[in-house]
Prior knowledge:
Number of strands: 2
Largest sheet: 2 strands, antiparallel
Helix content: 55-70%
Shape: globular
Order of helices and strands: EEHHHHHHHHHHHHH
Strand order of the largest sheet: 1-2
Mean pLDDT: 96
Number of helices: 13
Low-confidence stretches: none
Amino acid sequence: MAGVVEGEDGVARCWWGGGGEDAAYRAYHDDEWGLPVTDDVRLFEKLALEGFQAGLSWLTILRKREAFRRAFAGFDFRRVARYDARDVERLLGDASIVRHRGKIESTVNNARRAEELVEDAGSLAAFVWRFEPPEASRPPVVTREALLELVHTPESRALAKELKRRGWTFVGPTTVYAFMQAMGLVDDHLEGCAARPGAEAARSALTRPV
């Protein structure tokens, strides 16, 4: 299948996760990306990191992920929501993360909005999983060509619009679709990728949060 590459370990992977030499990137592709997530802290973390990724590569963010976790209290949004201007200045001096004032302030803002959303919807997971696309809307075969056309979808546009309505920032439809791919709201591992059957099985076994 075009877009599937075989690594030096003999494992077939999506082109973006199997062609490089970075072991952390391969592990992220194999063990995280596309597996369904219903944990609120992990969902918030991914939305925050997707915001930080804007204009950068995901590998850059992945390599700094542990530093981001230290800087943002493990992405416990209830703790991050208590950050103030002094914390923003502290983080602007932290060379281990991306020092971008707008993105740091956005993460603090979004943590406060996440608290509000949980109070309204019960959980962040229950809210975002409402936007899982129906199976009929998905490509019958997930190919590289199909993925390159899925920059954003009606569901990612709807989720982005609702988050923005609730005051979230750095949550455009393309960013939100990348979040949906990573958190398993869709399975965009290519047909022929060794990780696809596991992601499909995990999605089939998942009890959707309500």
